[in-house]
Description:
The complex is a heterodimer of chains A (168) and B (187). Chain A contains two helices and seven strands. Chain A has helices spanning 14-24, 67-145, and strands spanning 4-11, 27-31, 34-38, 45-50, 56-61, 149-155, 158-166. In chain A, the strands form two sheets. In chain A, strands 1-5-4-3-2 form a five-stranded antiparallel sheet, covered by helices on one side. In chain A, strands 6-7 form a two-stranded antiparallel sheet. The N and C termini of chain A lie far apart (137 Å). Chain B is built from three helices and eleven strands. A seven-stranded mixed sheet of chain B has the order 3-1-2-4-5-6-9. A two-stranded antiparallel ribbon of chain B has the order 7-8. In chain B, strands 10-11 form a two-stranded antiparallel ribbon. Chain B is globular. Strand 7 of chain A pairs antiparallel with strand 10 of chain B.
Amino acid sequence: MSARIRTLLPLLDMECILQALDNLGERYTLRGNDIIITSKKYYVEAKLSRQNDGKYVLTGDTDVLTENFQKRLVNNYKSLYDSKVRRIREELEKKEAEAQRALEEERRRIEQERIRLQQEQRRLEEEREKYVESQKKKVYEKAKAMGYSVKETIVKDKIQLVLVKRTY
Amino acid sequence: MLNVYDIEEKSEIYGPGIRTVLWMQGCRLRCKGCWNKDMWNFKPHKLFRVEELVEKVKNIYGIEGITLIGGEPMHQSLELLKMAMEIKKLGLTVVLFTGYEFSELTSEHEIKLWKLSDIVICGRYEENRRNIYLQWRGSENQRVIFNTKVYEKYTLAEGNYCEINIDTNGEMTISGFPDNFSEKDFF
């Protein structure tokens, strides 16, 4: 009396399938990877089996698998699936925007830190140069007071002062 | 290995012209009033192979030669002789500061090092004969001997000489025969 047909539906997401079945008022149970649907009307079983490629395939009695039921299940599923995809996309865009903002913030912070360190380095460099100059000035002053002549040369990165006091 | 206290790549006060100066670590003479007591002990300080030092000197542009001072260079005469021979091959001159007199030398390499040096400044530092207005010497008993013809026409320019190096951090190194000129003045 009953025929056995196999209809391929683009059903991929279990969460949406179960939600669609709830929306249609169908009862179901989970058995391994399969969703077992029991028709309210005829109390016969139909089965959504998960294939290796991730698709769920509907198998069952023709009385259960009326074209109307399939259409309603697929339409419901599609609507739920589209909402889910949209929600995920929006969530992703939100997260991307957050990440971008955080990145910009971090970049700004690092740039400020870089500028601060650069200024600090410049300050230290100026202080160092000032100190070297003051040391040199002290030597010149003391040498002069003691009657030395001073010859200044740069040896590599050092200042070399040769102090001579001749006694002819 | 040569035990070195310090190296000044370019100096103008330890011999004629611009010279690389090597202060050797270790001295048994321990003259009273010595200015370089840090160089008395023989603990390894900066150790170099002769070849390393020769290579280093070879890469210093514009020097007339090297000066060996200390400490007491004669305590490391075997290695220093090897170095001096290599330095001479480069067409550079050698100035040797030693607390010994020639008559006190006991080994062949000490004598060879002395004879190979173009100028030898010799004799103990005698505190009671201190005179800082003598070129290259710290006391009146010390002598300058021109060993080779290279500097036979050189005339000593008596006077007080010192050299102050200020590095990029403002740290100073004072060397020579400073007349009441010490680091203390700058700190």
